[in-house]
Amino acid sequence: MHYIDSEGRYFTKKLLIEANNAAIREERNRQLKEEYLENLSHDMVYPISLSFDEHNRGEIRVQIVFDEKGTTGFLDMSKNRYNLLPKAIYHIDGTVELETEEMINAKRLYPEGREYTETVGRKLIRDSSFRTKVLKAYNNECAMCELDDVSVLVAAHIQPAHLCEDDSVNNGICLCKIHDKFYEDGDICVRFNGEIFLQNENIKIDYDKIRFPIDKADYPSPNRLNQRLEMSIRRFKRN
Ligand SMILES: [Zn+2]
């Protein structure tokens, strides 16, 4: 068990194109194909899985992960540009926090030359595409309340991500951060048919059933809901 969070940096499509244009302009050794970058999705983030700092003249070489299969590419960039990239914070509970635009603007310097494993990079892509899918399925609304502010919505895994590889939309529920926390802790449980029941009597909730996705194909899997329910009940009894 690790007790510390770890950090990495990532690109958005826009940042990647900017960095690559700079590499071309500055005639750096490692550049990426412009057509390849143009075809990347705007909805994804592209984490740096490795960075090498041993280069001359304040240059840094980064390895970027482009998809869940682990396709990677190398790009050379100035250390200054590298230091301005947004950070991803990998929490020990398996969640990933992405630094926002506002935070990027108020940048601080961090130690350079860190190495990150490729596994970490893949996980970030996994989280990012899962979130996009699940939020869309639930029309960007919490399944337990009225909240529809995307910045506080979470794609909760029904079977937790560290226990299973299932990143299908049927293993997800879109929740606001508050209901996600209650669901995570087992204070709020969901039965196989979507019925909500409370294991914490201090919580009040307006619905007796979660609000399902628009498309039936996106409904949460009754099987997964059952597995999670069993876990939550055991966990709750132990406490
Ligand atoms: Zn909610």
TrEMBL record:
Protein name: HNH nuclease domain-containing protein
Domain HNH nuclease: from-to ranges: 142-190
Recorded superkingdom: Bacteria
Lineage: Bacteria, Bacillati, Bacillota, Bacilli, Bacillales
InterPro entries associated with the record: HNH_nuc (IPR003615)
